Amino acid sequence: MNDLQQAVARLQAGGVIAYPTETVYGLGCDPVNESAVLRILELKQRPVDKGLILIAATADQFKRYIDPATFARYPHVLESWPGPNTWLIPCKPDTPRWLRGDFDTLAVRVIDHPVATSLCKLFNGPIVSTSANPAGHEPAMSALEVKTYFPDTLDMILNGNVGSGAVSTIRDAETRQLIR
């Protein structure tokens, strides 16, 4: 079993992993596994009300959370992917609060990094993606930095190079307003 297959097995078993993205190292888990998501929030010291980002290999992987017809209203979103562009998009009413926080939107991004894209393809769906750092600290840029922040607390760290080091932009799909 190669590293990506091991990472997918850990995600399927409810694990929390770290992986490189086109911006920084991310922490991820299966978005439908509430205990795994809450574990990430605890590791990051992040409140659930803020919501989290989901990354995917394709926009179709978000269909559990976002009606595919919704994307037709926002062609600018699809045109911006793949890449470090996260969009807040109206989500289905049954989207868990542990993902959307106190909002009726969900933060989503089609990833543009070979490791993270392959991870989502093999997992056959989106994964939670939040920067690998405790609140108030700079995001990890290497597997070693991830280990420094989270010694012996993650189920796996995938090795790889990260991109720019800048966090992804977050925009509202409706207004195009820059949130971050």
Description:
The protein is of the alpha/beta class and 180 residues long. It has a single domain (3-172), classed as Alpha-Beta Complex (DHBP synthase). The protein is built from seven helices and eight strands, in the order H-E-E-H-E-H-H-E-H-E-H-E-H-E-E. An eight-stranded mixed β-sheet has the order 7-1-2-6-3-5-4-8. A hairpin with a 4-residue loop joins strand 1 (17-20) and strand 2. Helix 1 (3-12) crosses helix 6. The longest helix has 11 residues, at 34-44. The radius of gyration is 15 Å and the shape is globular. 44% of the residues are buried. The mean pLDDT is 96.
Which helices and strands appear, and what pairs or packs with what?
Layout (H helix, E strand, L loop, with lengths): L2 H10 L4 E4 L4 E4 L5 H11 L8 E4 L11 H5 L2 H5 L5 E6 L6 H4 L4 E6 L3 H10 L3 E5 L11 H7 L6 E2 L11 E4 L8
Parallel strand pairs: 1-7, 3-5, 4-8
Antiparallel strand pairs: 1-2, 2-6, 3-6, 4-5
Helix pairs in contact: 1-6
Number of domains: 1
CATH superfamily: DHBP synthase
The CATH class designation is: Alpha Beta
Mean pLDDT: 96
State the order of secondary-structure elements, H for helix, E for strand: HEEHEHHEHEHEHEE
Structural class: alpha/beta
**Tally of strands:** 8
CATH names the topology as DHBP synthase
Can you summarize this structure?
Helix content is 29%, strand content 19%. The chain is an alpha/beta fold and 180 residues long. Strands 7-1-2-6-3-5-4-8 form an eight-stranded mixed beta sheet.
